[in-house]
Amino acid sequence: MHRNSNKRVIILSYSKVNLVIDQGNTHIKYGVFDKRQLLHSDSVDFLDKTLIAKLQQKYHFEKAIISSVVSNEPGKLFEIVQKTIPNTIWLSHLTPLPFTWTYKTPETIGKDRLAAVAGAIEYFPHKDTLIIDAGTAITYEFVTHKAQYQGGNISPGLKMRFSSLHHFTSQLPLLTPSPDHAFFGKSTKEAIIAGIQNGITYEIDGYISTLKLSHPDVCVLITGGDAEFFARKLKNPIFVHLNLVLIGLNRILEHNAQ
Predict the structure, then answer these.
(1) Which of 22, 42, 45, 112 is flagged as catalytic?
(2) Domains defined for the chain, CATH in brackets
(3) What does residue 137 show for φ and ψ, rounded to 5 degrees?
(4) Which of 102, 121, 196, 221 sits at 20 to 30 Å (Cα–Cα) from 115?
(5) What percent of the chain has pLDDT over 90?
(6) 3-state helix vs strand vs coil in the chain, percent to 5
(7) Mean of the pLDDT values across residues 45-49?
(8) CB count, 10 Å around CB of 30?
């Protein structure tokens, strides 16, 4: 930070600034990092060259990384970013990662899952950690204190369950989540809401409780759009970190720069 004592103007300067982009199923989330410090993050419907140019003008990025669950190959978004930031990485299963893994089908794994694991290692180094991403789908990942990714599971997310229950039946209505619900519903609407939301809550608590039998000191991180919704309902203690994937992408980017 440099201060001009005459005009009292503060000018911020950054070094080695990174742009990380997480292209999800519904939104694109991006983060700006000064080394490993998150300076700014936002979620947008699309990321075009105009916004990239504005961000570049402000931060002067040194490097960037893009993760996408929409496409396995670099597309238009990668081309736009690379033209502005030549040192841009497209995250794939071949990208060097800050952990070891033995996934049987590495080419099929969601890149946001890899980023979440990297974020957990950054957040809880040398700890057994369960990572839960409650988004369009709910994913569960387990990484050991030795930074060994053991694999994970994929389950339908909150809104997906409401949608599928309506889509695959003749008369059940399409409903939306509710922060309050009974244990047993006394109407069809209440039964659907309680059934879906209790089901997910018990599912998450079940994963945590079962894993604690073999790893009693396991840390639990939850991220994703519905993270805070469920964190308040769980019996087990849990840490909410909404920018975990962005932090993980930045960790991967820094790992490849070494």
Answers:
(1) 112
(2) 1-90 (3.30.420.40), 93-258 (3.30.420.40)
(3) -115, 160
(4) 196
(5) 78
(6) 35, 25, 40
(7) 87
(8) 23
Question: How many Å apart are CA 30 and CA 73, to the nearest integer?
Answer: 19
Which position has the token pair 């071949």?
94
Closest by CA to 25, choosing from 136, 115, 112, is 136
H or E segment at 250? Answer: helix 244-257
Q: Residue 116 in contact with residue 132, Cβ under 8 Å?
A: no
Mean pLDDT of 178-204: 93
Strands (E), the chain: 2-4, 9-11, 17-23, 28-34, 37-44, 63-68, 88-90, 100-101, 129-134, 137-143, 148-156, 219-223, 239-240
Q: Which two tokens stand for residue 185?
A: 């519903």
Please give the Cα distance from 27 to 37 (Å, whole number). 23
pTM: 0.88
Task: Assess whether 205 carries a catalytic annotation.
Answer: no
